[in-house]
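user: Here is a favour to ask of a fellow structure person. I have my own habits and do not want them to colour yours. Could you put it straight underneath, so I can go through it closely?

assistant:
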Amino acid sequence: MKKKNHQWTLGLVTSLVFTGFSGFAQLNLPEPSPSATVQQKIGFTDVKISYSRPAVKGRTTFGGLVPWGKLWRTGASEATIVTFSDPVTIAGKPLPAGSYSLFTIPAPQQWTIIFNKHVGGHGTDGYEEKNDVLRFTVKQDSSLRFYETFTIEVQDLVHNQANLYLNWANTSVRFPVVSNADERITAEIADWINVKKENSPSLYYQAALYYFDQQKDTRQALEWATKAVQLKPAFNYLHLQAKLLAQSGHFKGAIEAARQSAQAAQQEKFLDYVTLNNRLIAEWEKKL
């Protein structure tokens, strides 16, 4: 009887021990490489990046934890996924709208960047080179600061483009992403002016200003700015016309347009434009 009681007690203790370990295994702990999502609009295009962020933890990252010359998931855990709502141009190469796995092959001098259409894998599982949609190389640089955690950033946004950065430890890699905003805006301008025949001074001004800012076809921009001034000689329309005339080398006309702009701005108490026009007039008079 004692033997049976001893066996029952031993079984109960064993059961409690294993139950305890089972409970411990189910603790809710933070992810070692937390997941993150980056969302950014470039031009009209929505960009979404989903990835996991491993930490350095005193280790050698590139050339150690991430071997040189080997395919890397560009993060941790699941494959890094990048989604573009519209077609884009990356490093000068076209990429259709859609979702892609972002893989990289780090090397001491340059990295290979890969956008692959297989998006269902864990890490590099399921990767096949035949599914590469875009592949190019970029230079490896030193980061401006130390990144303990792997970080993907979309920075340097100007008009319809930005740079995508891959930063970890003291390493930084970047490449440009250009949206199709310019194509859409140019097509819209052509539709309003050439097809719908809209004769609005604000439309001509906006079209001319867009071309001026984007450094597109100065002659066409000047034509639109001149039409805007003819329809409505507003100080900002005259100011843009003056800058386009100067850009075309017509400094006498530029000076006259700037003087008219300054006078109109003075009347409407936009004194910043008065100062700016007078500064440009002094600069252009030296070129006569």
About this structure: The first strand starts at residue 35 and ends at 42. DSSP finds seven helices and nine strands in the chain.
